[in-house]
Amino acid sequence: MIQTKLESFISDYLKSNNFELSNWNVAINTREGFGDYSSNVALILSKKIGKNPMEIAEAIVGYQNKEEELFSVSATKPGFVNFNISINYYLDIMNSILEEGANFGKPGKHEKSANVEFVSSNPTGPLTAGHGRNTILGDMVSSILSWHGYNVTREYYYNNAGKQMRMLGESSYAKYAKKIGKDVTPPENGYVGEYLDDIADEIITKFGKDLDSNSEHFRAFTEEKIFDSIKNTLKSLRIEFDLFSQEQKFYDNGGIDNVLKKLDELSLTYKKDGATWFKTSGLGKEEDKVLVKSTGEPTYRLPDIAYHIDKVDRGFDLIVDIFGADHIETYPDVLLGLKALGKRTDHIKVIVHQFVTLKKDNQVVKMSTRKANFITLDDLIDQLGVDVVRYFFIMRGANSHLDFDFDLAKDESEKNPVYYLQYAHARISNLITRYDSDINQKTGLDLSLLIEKDEILLIKKLSAFPTKMGEIHESLEPSKLATYLQEVAASYHKFYGNHKVIDHNNIPLSYARKNLCNATQIILKTGLSILGITAPEKM
RNA sequence: GCCCCGGUAGCUCAGCUGGAUAGAGCAACGGAUUUCUAAUCCGUAGGUCACAGGUUCAAAUCCUGUCCGGGGUACCA
Questions:
Q1: CA of A521 to C1' of B7 (A)
Q2: Which domains does chain A have, with CATH numbers?
Q3: Which nucleotide is nearest to A121 (CA to C1')?
Q4: Would the N or C end of chain A have less CB density within 10 A of its end CB?
């Protein structure tokens, strides 16, 4: 990779002069007129050796072996060292894109495994727009890891045994009772969503009108129906899980008792106010946390520690948890628990995303499954399409609050960023078809004919793909891929608008440009497929 | 009170491991359609990077404080 070469060029210079310096860098330039890459090394060195930075920069320029053809070095004003990379370097990369196609930039296969836990919504109601971010983020993070050679397990962890599920059963019964004319007051703080009416109808059809409130059908059947709907939503989002894990398992197999017992042996728990506390203060935290409530029910932390022990023991090389901002307080406790019990945690990555503010009819919709005040993910998919939904939920960084304006997303669907990307792809498809029937030149490719500014910029943008994917692997931020693809599409549309590809008077150039289109299409298609968004041939 | 995110153009957000003239989309305004798909392109306008200090040759970026918004703070998960 070129950046490494530039860095070693500079370290060679430093070594040959016996300068010890560590915090300099070589960075890609986004601004025009300063070369492709720049280094701040002279500015930093200047302070250390008390010399004018510009002089140092000039010295580095002079250090270059003039035979070097890959790049040229120059110095500018305050003391930056700028590198201009030979176009041949970029053309070589373009050749690789054309040769390797969908595999371009992909690291070789390695035998690593990863587990990504996401959604993890309990089956108390359909997936809402609020769940969309976690769901789609998790799926794309999984795809990014797969692309980088991981064997990924997508895992959905849920609890169908707790208080909320009991409440769901009671709420379901209340709906049923009302429909068969019984006077039953619904549970306080129960669920009231319309989806429960539909389920109550089904219960009547299937099991009749003589069920009493104790019937298991209210809880079990309701849960089953809701889970079916969740799975359907996931399916329409093109998401497939490898594993569904139940919290109940860790009650049944003693995992939870075991955690309590071991923590107790380590003197990390104590009783107070009828509750069992986790002495996290002994592990560097300011406050202790409750593991078992005074009612005897564990808090979220305890089973989650047991669950994570299970995940760690399954031996993954990487474990990723996708959590909403509401978990930000609890996950450090889970990690502390794991550490205290002697488990590895250095391979656990927690991605905390901020919440989505959904706006509809100019109002903020507060999401609450219980109060049935929500827009479902299905609603969004129906109105906007899967591609738009997938894109909108990841177009912002996970750390930013996401404003999802339903009306705007719908109104603007024709000038949507998603369509901008897809249109670039479709345009290329059409063009290539046209080229094949009009010219159909297939030998004698000479990419060096691509000398226009728009062509060069596009080629450089495409060449950045492997580096960009590396950054995305590091940060696990799909939004960065979306941004990059927008830049690729913009470069392409610009090139397309300013230059004609098919020119019967200049077949060699036509052929070179057609290959530039091919390369662009490969990058767009690869990127879109990682995002799980379709790359249409026609629009 | 304490903890975690965020505050950048009218709106939604990039940029944040410090670098040169702070970017994009939408909205506004003005252009391009004898055409390889105008779902596009070109141009104009739009900024106290919340505020105040500090560190530095250099701060939107790092540190401290203040203000504002979101989330959390056992008995919702």
A1: 38
A2: 2-85 (3.30.1360.70), 92-107+416-531 (1.10.730.10), 356-409 (no CATH)
A3: B77
A4: N
